Amino acid sequence: MLPKNRPFNIMAKPVCGVCNLACEYCYYLAKPAELYPGVEKFLMSGEVLESHVRQYMAAMPQQCDFGWQGGEPTLAGLEFFEKVLELQRRFAVPGQAVSNALQTNATLLDDRWCEFLARNKFLVGVSLDGPPRRHDHFRHDKGGRDTFHRAWAGLEKLAAHGCEFNVLVTLNSANAAAAGEIYRYLVNRSIRYVQFIPILERRPDGTFAEFSCTCEQFTKAILDVFEQWAGHDAGKVSERLIDNVIHTILFGRSAICCHATQCAAEFVLEWNGDLYACDHFVQKDWLIGNIMRTPLVELVGGEKVRDFARLKTELPDDCKACEYLEFCNAGCPKHHVPIGTSAKRVNYYCSAYKAFFAQALPELRRMAEYFRCGEIPPPKQSPAAQPEGEKNAAAPANRKTARGQAVPGRNAPCPCGSGKKFKACCGKR
User: Fold this and answer.
1) Is-contact 92 57, C-beta < 8 A?
2) CA distance 254 to 251
3) CA angle, 168 as apex, 236 and 218 as ends, to 5°?
């Protein structure tokens, strides 16, 4: 059973899967017709929006983080998000921290949008799959035209307005082998926050779509990125998987749902108030209910959510004795083969994670001791490049190594090396 009052997040989809692009691998473009046949216009109404903001903020009185995604959420219009802020001000309680995050393809961002996002401190995620020849392989508009230069123009506008943003790279069959190249391309252009997420989509017959990232490709991708980061960018660049391993070393728990001990706390709210268990499980079988008919707090604590949690908490047999269990926790249930609760299922990317942990953990444990004290660690060196007396050197002996010690102050730099304050990163509840 899920703990009472357990924190949860909601990713809202104000326009369902409606988008100005037609990326070939997108799993959400089909959702409007699949879930709501016959509906022609998708836009969250004022009534649904008000109910969402009011109920969500009441349920999360200390820290309420709003996420907005699509499709392409900017198609809801700037006035929609001005209304969001108005409602958040109306329903806020004393001492409540409220934040907004927006995931976008960035092709529709102009100066007016970017000024609004920066002024209101939106964290913007930009979907970008690398340099033009990598990005444009699958990411076209509805006319079949390339989109990289429009997306990059939007990203540059965000930077010019001082808006905080990160880049999300979808690893697929066309770009995964070049993940190291993509990482360096972005970092050389002053991108400091990046995440690589593998795409793994199934056809109706259960086989994987040809654009999916294979296990072999994912293995090479995460190892190549790690070597680049460890050798040049530790403490200067934030990469999602690496950050999460460091967070787990320092605090004994994952900071992201796919490697946590349980999920079932990252919900999706559709344009009409339908609440689903997870962004990867927006399916009729995992419809939790509708917030216009049932109070949100009842939905998130209901039996359907407990059933969904079992996809994660009932570990596959092969995971139970794995030496890397605390860092992986069976990964995302979407990547399980087969999906479900069978004790014999496996994570499709299991061998990739094992290869990554085997290679990265010794170095990340060393670096974590520097991060624990708010310091940037020396970069990784190859054994041949190290002086003989330093080849097996650990962190300085006077560093505290017991988990949970030397936690920094709220306004100190976060020890994971993200560049954020501790209170806005690993210390955030």
Assistant:
1) yes
2) 8
3) 90
Average pLDDT over residues 12-31: 97
Sheet strands (E) in 177-217: 193-198
Q: What is the DSSP secondary-structure string of 290-353?
A: ETTTS-HHHHHTSHHHHHHHHHHHS--HHHHT-TTHHHHTT--GGGEESSSS-TT-EETTHHHH
Catalytically active residues, by annotation: 279
Coil, strand or helix: which one is 346? Answer: strand
Cis bond leading into 387, ω under 30°? no
How far is residue 384 from each of residues 387, 388, 390, measured CA to CA in Å?
8, 9, 11
β-strand partners of 98: 64
Angstrom distance (rounded) from CA 387 to CA 12:
53
Indicate the SS3 state at residue 12. Answer: strand
* Helices and strands, number each (H, E), in the chain: 14, 12
Alpha-carbon span 239 to 237, nearest angstrom:
6
β-pairing, 9-12 vs 287-290, is: unpaired
Do residues 341 and 311 lie in contact, with contact meaning Cβ atoms separated by under 8 Å?
A: yes
Interval 24-75: pLDDT, tens: 999 999 999 999 999 999 999 999 999 999 999 999 999 999 999 999 999 9
Q: Give the whole-angstrom CA distance, residue 418 versus residue 370.
A: 13
Q: Report the alpha-carbon distance of residue 419 to residue 429 in Å, rounded.
A: 18
pTM score: 0.88
DSSP state of 261: S
d(CA 341, CA 307): 10
Whether 363 and 407 have beta carbons less than 8 Å apart is answered as: no
> What type of residue is 6?
R
Alpha carbon distances (Å) from 61 to 102, 354, 388:
21, 39, 55
CB 146 within 8 A of CB 175: no
Q: Rounded CA gap, 160 and 190, in Å?
A: 12
- Which structure tokens are listed for 256? 């992201």
Residue 198: φ, ψ to 5°: -75, 140
**Which pLDDT does position 17 carry in this prediction?**
97
Pull the structure tokens for residue 347.
Answer: 């994570």
Backbone angles phi, psi at 109, to 5 degrees: -75, 125
DSSP-assigned letter for residue 117: H
Pairing state of beta strands 274-276 and 266-269? antiparallel
| H or E element at residue 88 | helix 78-91
And the tokens for 330?
A: 């069976």
Residue 90 CB neighbour total at 10 angstroms: 11
Q: Dihedrals φ, ψ of 387, to 5°?
A: -60, 150
